[in-house]
Design a protein that fits this description.
By secondary structure, this protein is of the alpha+beta class. The protein is built from twelve helices and four strands, in the order H-H-H-H-E-H-H-E-H-H-E-H-H-H-H-E. Among the domains are: 113 residues, Four Helix Bundle (Hemerythrin (Met), subunit A), CATH 1.20.120; 31 residues. A four-stranded antiparallel beta sheet has the order 1-2-3-4. Helix 4 runs antiparallel to helix 7, helix 5 runs antiparallel to helix 6 and helix 7 packs antiparallel against helix 8. The two termini are 15 Å apart. The relative contact order is 0.14.
């Protein structure tokens, strides 16, 4: 999962070219690349042996339902063998991704509209219209969600071995119960990446590249980056980091001031990018169930 997260978070930087580019184009391209990268990296992270082990587990349950003990034994031995291959690898992960989905929801509105929508939600709640408020509140999202189904390597193989033992003892019901329990232990993880932070990062990166060649466009990038940060703040994408939205906003303004002056902003850009990365990593959330 860390590999997925790291790859997606830097995806927006890949779209910048070093030539003056419209700020909206930078933002749009950054989001497209981030979505594509999230899908491709998630797909590559899937462990095929784990996928096949789960499919075989489901097949064993079908075998048991048909009272086909011989095929049940063969299939569960194959499933165990698939996971033994993974267990034999050095530094085998605790969780093995077997499936994924990537969903992007973008709230395409300016800061003013977001504020008005939040106020409307509050008014609905004050009037006791909870469901209407809930429906409106659900629109206040601008994020890429990477959802992964994971096989727990610490327990799943042991469950298969226990079920295999029951099968060899002709205890089909016990084997069925163990396998159903094993399938219920699959862990669902979701990583939420705020889109405003992806676009702001891309804008800052491109501003750094073109600051010497095109001051005006670099300043436009930074102005839009500040608006994206404000959107992220209003939408509730907060961070446990000491780096706050105010600190980032102040850092951008320092860069803007230097660009307007002698334009020796290289060090300030580096400081801004480092602060931004720290904040962004902490604002990106992960949950499991």
């Amino acid at each position: 999962m860390k590999k997925i997260l790291s790859s997606v978070l830097v995806a927006s930087l890949l779209v910048t070219s070093g030539f003056a580019t419209n700020s909206k184009t930078i933002s749009s391209d950054a989001l497209k690349v981030a979505k594509k990268d999230a899908k491709s990296t998630s797909q590559m992270s899937v462990v095929q042996e784990a996928v096949e082990a789960v499919i075989l587990t489901q097949k064993v349950l079908v075998d048991i339902a048909h009272n086909d003990k011989e095929n049940a034994k063969k299939d569960i031995e194959k499933a165990i063998g698939k996971l033994e291959v993974v267990l034999a690898k050095k530094d085998a992960p605790v969780m093995l991704p077997i499936d994924y989905s990537v969903n992007a929801v973008e709230f395409q509105a300016d800061v003013s509209t977001i504020k008005k929508t939040i106020d409307a939600v509050k008014d609905l709640l004050d009037d006791g219209k909870v469901q209407a408020a809930r429906a409106l509140l659900n629109t206040l999202q601008s994020e890429i969600d990477i959802s992964t189904v994971n096989l727990p390597l610490a327990s799943y193989p042991q469950a298969l071995k226990l079920a295999a033992s029951y099968l060899h003892d002709n205890k089909l019901k016990e084997a069925q119960d163990v396998l159903e329990m094993a399938l219920s232990t699959l862990v669902h993880t979701t990583v939420v990446i705020p889109i405003p932070l992806i676009t702001a990062e891309a804008l800052i990166a491109d501003a750094q590249k073109i600051a010497k060649k095109d001051k005006e466009q670099a300043l436009k990038h930074l102005e839009l980056a500040k608006k994206e940060l404000k959107k992220a703040e209003l939408l509730g994408y907060t961070s446990s980091s000491d780096v706050t939205y105010k600190i980032l906003d102040d850092a951008i303004e320092k860069v803007e001031k230097e660009i307007k002056g002698k334009n020796k902003a290289e060090k300030l850009f580096e400081e801004l990018i480092n602060k931004f990365k720290s904040f962004k990593d902490n604002a990106t959330t992960s949950s499991s169930k």
